[in-house]
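Ticket #4471: complex job returned nothing on first submit. Input attached below:
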Amino acid sequence: MSKIISQASALVQARDLKNDYFSFTLAPFAKAASCRPGQFIHLELPHTELWFRRAMSVASVDPSAKSVEFIFKVFGRGTRLLAGLRKGAEIGILGPLGKPFTRPKKSETVVMIGGGVGFPPLMYFAEDLVRRGYDPQRIHFFYGGRSKTDLVERTRIKGLGIRFHPVTDDGSLGQRGLVTAIAGDWLKAEGGSRPRLYACGPEPMLAAVDAMGQERDIPGELSLEAPMPCGVGICLACVVPLVRGGYARVCADGPVFPIGEVQW
Amino acid sequence: MVTPNLSITLAGCHLANPIMTASGCCGYGEELAEIFPISKLGALVTKTITPEVRPGHPPPRTAETHGGMINAIGLANVGIDRFISEKLPWLSQQKTAVVVNVGGKTVDDYVAVSEALAPYDSVAMIELNFGCPNVNEGGLEFGANGAMAARTVAAVKRVFPRPVIVKLTPNVTSISDIAVAVEDAGADVVSVINSLVGMTVDVSSWKPTVTFNRGGLTGPAILPIAVAMVDACYQRVSIPIIGIGGIASAMDVVQFMLVGASAVQVGTSLFVHPDGPVRILKDLTAYLKSRKLASVTELIGKVEKY
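Support reply: We reran it on our side without changes. The output follows.
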């Protein structure tokens, strides 16, 4: 079987996480077990004039049920259409696609920084690391949003037993401020031996994490988002400029890039 | 009934079937090979290769449209030298016919790239991109001016010993006039059509949806235009025609062949269904069986017009 497959699938569970956030679980997907944290699936929406696929990062998988979960926020026409789908709706899956996060060494302190709807791949990554025997107390999850209602799935993330640091712009939950600034202060104060950064979220947040990593010489990876017609590296639409010049494809060369590579 | 014969001969080149992938929609083949065995293709047409490395335009480069897309990638490619050293060796091993699409700003550019490819027998044919609307120099003007197109074809034919395909732009008054001009100049095959100039605007930002402002419209939306243009060219040239434009199913392929295409290229629909050619071949075989046709070539030009 090819590494990447295209398969007809169906919406088997739809959870309304409130405030325009939804968790969808699709099955069957024969490659569920090989979806690594940081990778994404490319979805074909049913009966729609929007005929491009929509890329969604994997939030969890259930290998025995051959199912894959993704979490999204209603943002444009595609996500609005998705949100309107009901259990049983047919959705085609192409995947798994893209490069996953690189696993840290067990001796390293893992610092994850998730902004808004960028949290799902990091949640999956944290879950995967815990399952692989990483010390949950050395995994710090900084989760930022405008307000308390933006920090969905908090109980689930805390339930992994990792160190959870909620941050909101308005102070309605956790520390008040920007998640990058709060994570930066924590790194300065607590340090954490041999930290490694992983981030996913809006572009200004990723640029700030990138700058912080470079200034303090902390290695890490950033997961980018871009509109992707093909998702497999053949259309060359979803490119980002690189520091060394030229462009990289977010879908096939990323979506995970090492700190210091992307030209913001 | 025996399995219908899908093989075709294009300007003396034997192809296992008439399904090719269109330039700019399949890179240099490596990514598609992760999804299906590309040996199933009749031929693979590479991204346009220019003399120099081109990074392409800044993003956004594409926009979704009703039944199609606008694209202005900007002929991003590795350049002829790296194509030959890094991409061609792998492509040559893939057991599918390789067609290299050639672009440039001047006649000399087209000649230089074609001449560099001449020694490599694994390049079965070249396809001259005479209709890219997404670059400031070259591209469109080669396709819109019959005399210039003819001069370029003649110059390329002198340096490239195997069949030369000319990919025609639809952004002209009469595409069949250009088809006749390039046939007279020695073209072996014409590809009909390249993308149509299009533009969309974001109503929130009031900016065009791609940074090049305009781009090429492709996808299912352009299929009827492309079928009509293949029909128009088939009336006037005797060289084979490759039909291109919005092909996403075997029934689309049949339409193009009935109006005179000897082969087709699948392009934009690969972005939604990268394994689409596999399904198209299966469905095409079933269609031929249902019509009791022994060979796919029996479709060519058989449209029953009113």
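The longest strand of chain B covers residues 123-129. Closing as resolved unless it happens again.
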